[in-house]
Amino acid sequence: MAKGDTHPFYDLHTHGFVRVATATPRTRTADVAYNAQGILEQAEKAHDQGVDLLLYPELCLSSYAIDDLHLQTALLEAVERHLSDIVEASERLSPVLVIGAPLRRNGRIYNCAIAIAKGRILGVVPKSYLPNYREFYEKRWFSHGRECVGLEITVGGETVPFGTDLVFEASDLSGFTFGIEICEDFWSPNPPGTLAALAGATILLNLSASNITIGKSDERHMLTRASSSRSVCAYAYSASGYGESTTDLAWDGQGMIYELGDLLVESERFDHAPELCVTDIDTRRILAERMRMQTWGDAGDFAGRPEDWYRRATFEHGAPRRDIGLVRPIRRFPFVPNRREKLDEDCYEAFNIQVDALMRRIESTKAKTIVIGISGGLDSTHALLVAAKAMDRLGRPRTDIRGYTMPGFATSDHTKSNAWKLMEAFHITAEEIDIKPAARQMLEDIDHPFSDGEPQYDTTFENVQAGLRTDYLFRLAGHHSGFVLGTGDLSELALGWCTYGVGDQMSHYAVNAGVPKTLIQYLIRWTTTTHQFDDGVDEILLAILDTEISPELVPAGADGAIQSTQSIIGPYELNDFFLHHVIRWGQSPSHVAFLAWHAWKDAQAGLWPIDFPHEARNQYDLSTIAKWLENFVKRFFAFSQFKRSALPNGPKVSAGGALSPRGDWRAPSDAVADVWLADLHGALPPLEG
Fold first, then answer.
1. Who has the most CB within 10 Å: 78, 184, 463, 597?
2. pLDDT at position 551, please?
């Protein structure tokens, strides 16, 4: 698609994104004219990159480390004069500029943040907390702004709102609302930005000087991440860089932007050259999380409902509607751990959540055995891994696990062989029950055409086999004083890809119910790379990972092609992407489609899970994404809830969510998908096919 395409779908603003950047401008100590030019240079670059909101460091117009020069009238007048020049120049620039400068009011000097847009000052926010310890002496020059509410200030002949009770809001771009705090403010126990967030700001900005010392970068990360998480917002931080006085201090120019605790972008520290640090903020994700998280609303009420008394400085943003891409890390596999330095720990945690939960269930039921159907596929393999580790930790023999492979009309020699190899490698009690005779009898009893030799492989034909397998497992569990360990996963539950009741939807304990297919694949691979079991087990696990995902309920066609799950319900990697954004963030299908397109349109770009095989790196065009997203919406919202409403117990594993009717997801079984389908169809551009 050409960059000039004007269809609203391709414009990030349509979907509630705001492009935010931190700037580290060129600076020269106390040279106001030079600093003003540096500010405008970065503003021009941000304009060219489609930035909506641009944050600068603290006191960037005057310089920060100038000590008693802050009290010099000539410098203060130069600040106001060049501030007027910046305001005038902003009329032709798209970003809202938030710069730092010392301003005078009623015989006092305040360390201020000034919000500027389209040729006018929107408002001025003073710093609340002035550090006056160790290397800092701000109270020598500045007055604090903690009690400055409902006030005005005159700057360059213009009277504008002044105070800590300000949030800034675009009248023409929903979700584009920001608040401001300055450096020490977020080191305080009660940062003023928290109130701004509770007043409605989805984005908090921190103009900082913050000289660099060993370990301070980590401290800033900690505070920025915590602020974005605790205040349920995006948080942008910009610290002073090269050009500030190094008489007694040094500066690293650190810029970073977090969203809901996730680091989106970070600048290169100690860069001699000016730098922009750009990313796109998802304000709809932020607002959805606030609606979902009742604690956030309760905190606003307890704080006196700042949304009622904060002043809103509104402006018309007027951003051009066009395709400017999406500058934002998007995880193709949002359920899969992606922190390299924490990879083993995250996988260990995911796996052991299941192991620990199963151990507790074994102890509480006093089960003598665990009964599990082993197909040679991914889900039953992973459930067996969990069961084996649970028995090992309980000090019980693996022979207490009773594995049954139950070949049907379409079971391949390959998967049956894998099932046997797997059971033998784990040294469990292994048996085989051929369900074909019982299935033929049942099909004959219900007068199904297959019993008369007709090749009718319909849902009934499939469910007879799936139901018999589960029926056998339940009877075997009773016979051997045990319980049936469910193997179905979160992805299948989302799509309703399971047989209800007497089928794979039911078990005594659904250990995989909180784990999506993509995570199961990754965890199985992790168990081999970290040698959780012996080499013989690893070899068969790798063979299972390479097997086509299939329910194996319909015989292969004349061409030998087997029944392929993903050709029917869509690629699991896309379905899991859709599922994460729908159940975790409540995103609309149009929003999910936009994210999916940017995540999957180019296999050579973006984020892949660590050590993900190159040959498995797929890409999808928008038509394909839209096709499978429509299928997901129909199955998730209108078809499969009745299966989820009757789920057996099973542990939640991922913060991305689960579908237990007792936990994350509660919904009626008779809903329709019309609203979600209309949202998707109404947003998409004309597509081929």
1. 184
2. 60
3-class SS letters over 330-367: CECCCCCCCCHHHHHHHHHHHHHHHHHHHHHHHHHHCC
Is residue 500 a contact partner of residue 524, using CB atoms and an 8 Å limit? no
Q: How far apart are CA 123 and CA 100, in angstroms?
A: 12
Using the 8-state DSSP alphabet, how is residue 653 labeled? -
Task: Answer for the pair 206, 183: CB distance below 8 angstroms, yes or no.
Answer: yes
- Residue 607 is classified by DSSP as B
Confidence (pLDDT) at 556: 64
**What is the H or E stretch that residue 111 is in?**
strand 108-117
- Considering only CA atoms, which of 444, 417, 433, 429 is closest in space to residue 468? 433
Q: pLDDT class for 5, splitting at 50, 70, 90? A: low
- How many CA atoms are closer than 13 Å to the CA of 167, on its beta-carbon side? 27
- C-alpha 468: how far from chain center: 40
* pLDDT score of 376: 86
Q: How confident is the model at residue 4 (pLDDT cuts 50, 70, 90)?
A: very low
Tell me how far apart the alpha carbons of residues 644 and 630 are, in angstroms, rounded to a whole number.
20
C-beta of residue 40 within 8 angstroms of C-beta of residue 84: no
What does the alpha-carbon distance between residue 242 and residue 147 come to, in Å, rounded to a whole number? 33
The reported pLDDT for the residue numbered 557 is: 64
Does residue 326 contact residue 591 with C-beta atoms inside 8 Å? no
**Helix (H) or strand (E) run with residue 219 in it:** helix 216-230
| DSSP bridge pairs for 99 | 114
The Cα 350–Cα 347 span in angstroms is: 5
**What are the tens digits of pLDDT across the range 56-95?**
999 999 999 999 999 999 999 999 999 999 999 999 999 9
Other C-beta atoms lying within 10 Å of the C-beta of residue 466: 21
Residues 6+ apart with CB under 8 A from 579: 490, 491, 494, 516, 632, 636, 656
3-state SS, residue 186 = helix
Residues 6+ positions from 540 with CB-CB distance below 8 Å: 418, 421, 422, 425
Question: Largest alpha-carbon pair distance within the chain?
Answer: 101
As a whole number of angstroms, the distance between CA 37 and CA 632 comes to 52
Cβ proximity of 499 and 463 under 8 Å: yes
Q: What is the pLDDT of residues 464-518, one digit of tens each?
A: 999 999 999 999 999 999 999 999 999 999 999 999 988 999 999 999 999 999 9
Between β-strands 234-238 and 255-259, what pairing exists: parallel, antiparallel or unpaired? antiparallel
Rounded to the nearest 10 degrees, how much is the dihedral formed by the CA atoms of 632, 636, 639, 641? 160
Number of residues assigned to the chain? 689
CB 180 within 8 A of CB 195: no
Residue in 506, 494, 420, 432 with CA at minimum distance from that of residue 470: 506
pLDDT digits (tens, 9 = 90+) for 243-267: 999 999 999 999 999 999 999 999 9
Amino acid at 598: H
Cα dist from 413 to 174, 183, 420, 482, 487, whole Å: 57, 66, 11, 29, 21
Q: What is the pLDDT of residues 523-576, one digit of tens each?
A: 998 888 888 888 888 888 988 888 766 666 667 666 666 667 888 899 999 999
Task: Show which residues are catalytic.
Answer: 58, 127, 183
Contacts of 66 (CB under 8 A, 6+ apart): 29, 30, 75, 245
- What confidence tens digit (pLDDT) does each residue in 202-238 have? 999 999 999 999 999 999 999 999 999 999 999 999 9
